[in-house]
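Changelog note: in this version the structure field was regenerated for every chain. One regenerated record is shown below for reference.
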Amino acid sequence: MVLWSRASDGFFHSRSWDDSGFAVVYCPASGDTHLLESLSLDLLNLIPSLPQTAESLAVAFSPFVPADDHDDIREFVELTLLKFSEVGLVVSHSL
């Protein structure tokens, strides 16, 4: 089982614009800035400092996704967590 949590201190600054569909995230710990889709930022904001499974994050994320897309939520969450991990926004913990 893999658990996910925010990287380092889990603190970041974000800014999004309603009409663009994108957001920027700045991580003070790394000094990096990332361009994310707004939906990805919604997921990042749900990831706590305490580790959670992708499945529990998918359940928490479901209100952000239209009902027609609920079958794809878990896949979106898993792929987005992997992308976040590659850029240092989240870390995985194996049990």
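Spot check on this record: Residues 73-86 form the longest helix (14 residues). Strands lie at 2-6, 13-16, 22-27, 32-37, 52-53, 90-94.
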